[in-house]
Design goal:
- This protein has 136 residues and is an all-beta fold.
- It is built from no helices and 10 strands.
- The relative contact order is 0.25.
Amino acid sequence: MNRLLVQSVSAGAALTMAIAGLGAGTATAAIKDGTCQSGEVCYWEADSFAGGLYDNNDGSDGDLSNNYFIVAPAVTANNAINSIRNLGAGGKSMKLYDGYNGSSFIACSPYGTQYSALGAASNRTSSHYRQAGAGC
């Protein structure tokens, strides 16, 4: 079973929870066109893959404040991601971080998974980096 690993730190204690993932579909790769396709990791500003879409095939980014949801260009992806679909990114998983430049790990989305809600990781992602392998 695929899992999204979410880490939350509260009062000095770390809590890790896993959220079951769903299999992903296939399509043709494209570049930030507002459609989630094979070869991309896609983020939505709302749960259940709703609202603005930020489709990314560039890989890692240490600062999401200069990236915007395609459907809602006035909304930055920084601290506004609530659902994710990992359809590619070179067949690798994607790590999400609360801080810029990969600081404060909060979640990892394995290759080929999707999550309609990110739980404790919702509205917290400021940077993301490709993981070396397909798993987390």
